[in-house]
Write a structure and sequence with these properties.
With about 850 residues, the protein is an alpha+beta fold. The protein has 5 domains: about 10-200, Jelly Rolls (Sandwich); about 200-305, Sandwich (Immunoglobulin-like), CATH 2.60.40; about 335-655, Glycosidases (TIM Barrel), CATH 3.20.20.80; about 660-755, Immunoglobulins (Immunoglobulin-like, Sandwich); about 755-838, Immunoglobulin-like (Sandwich). The chain has 16 helices and 44 strands. Helix 6 packs parallel to helix 7, helix 8 (about 410-425) runs parallel beside helix 10 (about 460-475) and helix 14 (about 590-610) runs parallel beside helix 15. The longest helix is centred in the C-terminal third of the chain and has 24 residues, at about 590-610. The relative contact order is 0.08. It comes from Deinococcus metalli.
């Protein structure tokens, strides 16, 4: 008699507790509660202890130092669960552990069923031999990672690293948890992903949905391959349905489950484009495993039809080759940012928070996000949102700033991790590049393990980056290019003519002036940046009034930048860049304002230098610029352009202007100015550039217009060769549109500290959500602070007599709005006279 087919049954385990366990000597941690605490899964022990008031907020003040014992302690998560006929009668019963952080022993009813040592590898365990009808128990015992890593280090040898404890390279845990030069040390532990039981007859174990677009862009082919696990029957089928972006069914296919592989043709596909180049239509592909009329399993994905290439070709008149992402035949200047994890307590990052942060990147005209190799493979929602917004993703494999080992057990773990990551993410239209590591070639060069005459055995992990990982990508995701490391490509990792480059001569290294970014370009600049503090409101969240000093202990503790010996040096470097521009700040608030303005100036310099070399077809000298970094994981002075509370810094607004689809850019060259218009539009534009030159006191010295035929997707020079400008003049180039500025480049005297900048005579009025600004004289770096309200525009340069209106995202009283500008005391807003009368 045939057994009735049951629908798949997958359910999360509930009723979790967490408890500290004795260490190897039998000693119990004195700070931990004796009794088990209710726990949340998915989650980590820091979150549970914080929720129960056992530990203070690690991000407040110096509390990071007070919670280190948590990462030094062994912890056990435990749950009980009931099994009945529905589960035990199913042909298969699996325990699914989607992510264990990190060194974990799993036991079912007292029997060890798994030893896991990789945070990024999901596990599926057949637990039928270990369970019983009725009550069952699951225990997840997490050992502290530091002793584990140091034991491996003692066995295999100590290796060079930048940031964190050197033993981290032996542990497949998010490397930034060990502390980085922008984040604290929090060695988390726990089941950070779902823990479920799955009762089933057969399941879709792996599904590949590869949508490839023909050279002529007129047709696309969807390849579907399904691996069926469990016990498929001869009559089982895998059915595929494809729905177009507009909701119309466009293709379907039915395949036998025992040989589920087929293709579907999509004529005249709706093409997916990077943001700013077109729309982001997504097809919905539903893959269903059926047995007669029963659904055994189902996978649904959204895929985009796009043709992506990484082109490395000659650059006219220059050595080396380009490094250009070409989508649907169109070269793309990949302006964007590096992404670090949004928190160290990862389960606090909600889908809404991912969407908000990525929307900020998109609103700044960014095209690419690089997921940095010291963090995590982000959750599905991250890539889903990038698909929707048209943000290309450069995805590092998770190796960063270290000489990693390559002994057999490590290689096996890495291969399993890589396959899990690639197969989960490969269907995303946003995925533009798989990259082997972050700065591992650089650190190898720094210790003589790479480069001419190096001993290959000293850089064992090269086999991971140049053999294992490209093989995994070729096998499981050949549609996406692979790159061995960031930076890499030329005779050395700093080669400016081949591959990608990290430009850290500004800030690190020789601490070059930010005006010199153009001297340190690369064919693709995948990292560069300069620090600044977060907003005053964010600073208030982790300090007390007595802590708000530029070089106070608490404030400096929240700046993790350090020299190669690990000595804090962020405040010292920031002070040097401040002293290049401004006289010493009179107050802490002015220090914060000045530091943030210097970061904004640096980012304007960088994007002008790099995007200004976009050139044209056949001469793509610089094809991308990714600022370090978009976001923060805790409240800190860092390279982020959006702080941990989601508040954009002045640098964010500077970058947004430089990455506009049509932008005018300029830089001083002696007593002259070199200017150009850069376009990412796919058609030529006839534009007008207004040149205004003012004395600092406001007198107009020159005003004239230049007509420009801005070439599509290229840089078009402006002819300003006959002009000479006084050193103390403010030179402003404005790109004019119908009744408005499309963009501007304001060049102020440098260094500004050597010039007498008069008070700009700002007046500010607020009515409901509208802030009106007026300047009597040239106003530099006008910053509107409206508390929790976010202005539609900020960090403005105003011309004499100019009136600008910005809109807030919520109503705010005038008394809560203040405005900063160079040379001015803080201006408090007032309400209009008419509003006061009401």
């Amino acid at each position: 008699m045939t057994q009735p087919t049951r629908a798949p049954h997958r359910f999360p385990l509930a009723g979790w507790t967490v408890q500290a366990r004795p260490d190897a000597t039998g000693a119990r941690p004195t700070r931990a509660p004796v009794d088990p605490l209710p726990a949340t899964v998915p989650g980590t022990v820091h979150m549970d202890l914080l929720r129960h008031g056992v530990i203070p907020d690690p991000y407040d003040g110096l509390n990071e130092l007070e919670v280190q014992w948590v990462g030094e302690t062994a912890w056990e998560y435990a749950a009980t669960f009931e099994l009945g006929d529905a589960e035990l009668d199913a042909p298969h019963l699996d325990l699914c552990l989607d992510g264990l952080d990190t060194v974990c022993t799993a036991s079912v009813n007292g029997t060890v069923v798994l030893r896991s040592e990789n945070m990024f590898v999901p596990h599926r365990i057949d637990v039928r031999p270990y369970v019983q009808r009725g009550r069952n128990s699951l225990s997840l015992h997490f050992d502290p990672v530091m002793p584990y890593g140091r034991a491996l280090e003692a066995e295999h040898g100590k290796r060079a690293v930048w940031n964190g404890d050197a033993s981290r390279v032996y542990v497949r845990k998010a490397q930034y948890h060990y502390g980085w030069d922008w984040g604290p040390t929090l060695l988390t532990a726990g089941p950070w992903q779902d823990v479920t039981l799955h009762a089933y007859a057969a399941r879709l174990d792996d599904v590949r949905t590869a949508l490839t677009v023909a050279d002529d862009l007129q047709r696309a082919t969807l390849t579907v391959e399904a691996t069926v696990g469990g016990t498929p029957a001869p009559g089982d089928t895998v059915d595929v349905h494809v729905v177009a972006p507009d909701g119309r069914p466009v293709a379907q296919l039915s395949m036998p489950a025992l040989a589920a592989a087929g293709t579907l043709d999509l004529p005249a596909p709706a093409l997916w484009w990077p943001r700013g180049y077109g729309e982001q239509p997504l097809y919905t592909v539903t893959v269903t495993l059926r047995r007669e009329d029963a659904v055994l399993d189902r996978v649904q994905r959204r895929v985009g039809a796009r043709r992506l290439e990484l082109v490395q070709e000659g650059v006219a008149g220059e050595p080396g080759t380009s490094f250009t992402f070409v989508v649907n035949g169109v070269p793309v200047f990949a302006g964007g940012a590096n992404w670090i994890p949004e928190d160290l307590l990862l389960n606090r990052v909600t889908p809404d928070r991912y969407r908000a942060r990525l929307q900020q990147a998109a609103d700044a005209h960014m095209v690419m996000i690089r997921v940095w190799g010291g963090g995590i493979y982000e959750p599905d929602v991250f890539y889903d949102v990038c698909d929707e917004l048209g943000l290309l993703v450069w995805q590092d494999f998770l190796f960063a700033c270290g000489l990693y080992p390559a002994h057999p057990a490590f290689l096996d773990s890495v291969r399993a991790e890589a396959i899990a990551a690639v197969t989960r993410l490969r269907h995303h239209a946003c995925l533009a590049l798989w990259c082997g590591n972050n700065e591992d070639y650089q650190i190898a060069e720094s210790v003589g393990a790479a480069g001419p005459g190096a001993d290959p055995s000293a850089f064992a992990a090269r086999s991971i980056y140049e053999r294992m990982l490209p093989e995994v990508v070729r096998q499981f995701n050949p549609e996406v290019p692979y790159w061995p490391g960031s930076p890499s490509g030329g005779a050395s990792s700093s080669d400016p003519t081949i591959g990608d480059r990290h430009t850290w001569e500004v800030w690190h290294g020789v601490m070059a002036p930010h005006q010199d970014y153009g001297r340190y370009e690369g064919r693709f600049v995948s990292e560069f940046g300069l620090q600044s503090p977060p907003s005053l409101h964010t600073i208030a969240s982790f300090t007390r009034p007595q802590d708000r000093r530029a070089h106070g202990r608490v404030f400096e503790h929240h700046n993790k930048a350090a020299d190669p010996r690990g000595r804090p040096d962020g405040s010292r470097r920031l002070a040097a860049y401040l002293s290049d521009t401004f006289q010493p700040a009179r107050t802490f608030e002015e220090y914060v304002y000045h530091a943030r303005l210097v970061q904004a100036d640096a980012m304007a310099s960088a994007y002008r230098a790099f995007r200004g070399r976009w050139g044209h077809d056949g001469a793509r000298a610089v094809s991308g610029a990714l600022v370090w970094q978009l976001n923060d994981c805790w409240p800190a002075t860092s390279w982020a352009i959006v702080d941990v509370d989601g508040v954009p810094k002045p640098a964010y607004h500077a970058i947004r202007r430089e990455l506009a689809p049509l932008a005018v850019q300029a830089r001083r060259e002696g007593d002259g100015v070199h200017g150009w218009v850069v376009s990412s539009a796919l058609h030529d534009h006839d534009v007008t550039v207004q040149l205004d030159v003012h004395a600092l006191g406001g007198d107009l010295l020159l005003s004239e217009r230049h007509e420009c035929h801005a070439a599509a997707n290229a840089v078009t020079p402006l002819d300003l060769r006959d002009h000479r400008f006084p050193a103390d003049a403010v030179v402003v180039l404005r790109l004019l549109g119908t009744g408005q500025d499309l963009g501007r480049a304001a060049l102020w005297p440098e260094p500004l500290k050597q010039f007498d900048v008069p008070d700009p005579g700002l007046s500010v009025t607020v009515e409901h959500r509208s802030v009106s600004l007026h300047a009597a004289r040239p106003a530099r770096g006008v910053w509107v602070d409206a508390g929790s309200a976010v202005p539609s525009d900020n960090h403005l340069d105003l011309l004499p007599g100019e009136r600008v209106r910005v809109v807030l995202d919520r109503d705010v009283a005038a008394s809560n709005v203040s405005v900063w500008a160079v040379g001015s005391e803080v201006v408090r807003a007032t309400a209009p006279v008419a509003a006061l009368r009401r």
